[in-house]
Amino acid sequence: MNWRKLAEDDYFLFARSYRMAARKLADGLDHEPGPIPEFDLSPVLSAYRLALELHLKVIVLGEGGAFLSVRPDVLSIQKTRSLPLLAQFVCQIVKTLRWEAVFCCDGVRNLAEFRAAIDEAHEIDPEYGAFQCAAGSAGLGGQERVSVLEFVRRLEGLLQLLEGIADAMAAEWDLRCWAGGDEGGPVGEIPVQCGGGGWMEGRWPARLPARKPGGSPHGRGLTHGGGGWRVGAGCG
C-alpha cells in the first residue's frame, strides 16, 4: 500500500472521515442490548479521540490559525497529541473573533465547559498505551451503559461544533481577504461580522492569499445573514 502526505486543503475531509467512522462504531454500541464489552468500547472512544485531535488541528493549522497573533510551529502542532494544548489555541481564536456567544452546543455553553469537555476526552488513552481498555472485565451495563452512551453523544456534539466553527472561520477569513483586495487584507482594526449579530471592531492579525467567498469553504452550506455565521448545533 502506498502512502502520501495530504495537502492542507484535504485536512478537513480527512478529519471528518474519522468522525464518520467513529459514529458508525458508536451506532453499533447503541443498538446492541445488554452491557457494553470493554473491548468493543475502547476502539469507539479511541476513534473519537483521534477525530477530535484532527479537527482541532484543522482549525489551528488552517484559516483559524490566521487569527492568532503568532502562529504556532506547524511541526509541533502536527506531532502533539495534547487535546488541551490544541483547545487552548482554538479558545484564543474564538476570543479574538468575539464568537464566545455562538461557540456552544448541547452540553457546552461556554469556553470553560468546552475546555472541561476536551480535558475529559484527553483522558482517553493520552499516552497511547497499546493495551488499555475503558471498562472492567464485566463490561458496562445499567447506569454505566447510559453514562457511556451519553459521553459518546457529547463527543459527537463536540465534533459537530468543531466542524462548524472551522467552516465559519474559513469563510470569515475569505470575507476579510476579499474586502482587503487581492493581496489579502491589511493588519489593523476593521469591522467584523461576528456570530453574535451585528458589526463590531476586530483585529485582522495576519495575511493569507485572498479568495472570493462562495458559500461554505468546506461544502457544508453555511449561511451568512444579519446574525453572522451559523456555526454548529444549538446551545444546550
Features:
236 residues, mainly alpha, two-stranded antiparallel sheet, two-stranded antiparallel ribbon, 6 helices, 4 strands, disordered C terminus
Description:
The chain is mostly helical and 236 residues long. It has one domain (8-127, 138-229). It has six helices and four strands. The strands form two sheets. The chain has a two-stranded antiparallel sheet with strand order 1-2. A two-stranded antiparallel sheet has the order 3-4. A hairpin with a 2-residue loop joins β3 (224-225) and β4. α1 (11-31) packs antiparallel against α2 (38-61) and α1 (11-31) packs antiparallel against α6. The protein is globular, with a radius of gyration of 19 Å.
Mean pLDDT: 74
User: C-alpha Rg, in Å?
Assistant: 19 Å
- Tell me the number of structural domains: 1
Spatially, the strands of the biggest sheet line up as 1-2
Taking the alpha carbons of the first and last residues, their distance comes to: 44 Å
Largest sheet: 2 strands, antiparallel
Q: Specify the number of helices.
A: 6
Strand percent estimate: 5-15%
Percentage of helical residues?
A: 40-55%
Give the helix/strand layout.
Layout: H1 11-31, H2 38-61, H3 74-79, H4 83-97, H5 111-122, H6 142-180, E1 188-193, E2 199-204, E3 224-225, E4 228-229
Antiparallel strand pairs: 1-2, 3-4
Q: Would you summarize the structure shown here?
A:
With 236 residues, this protein is mainly α.
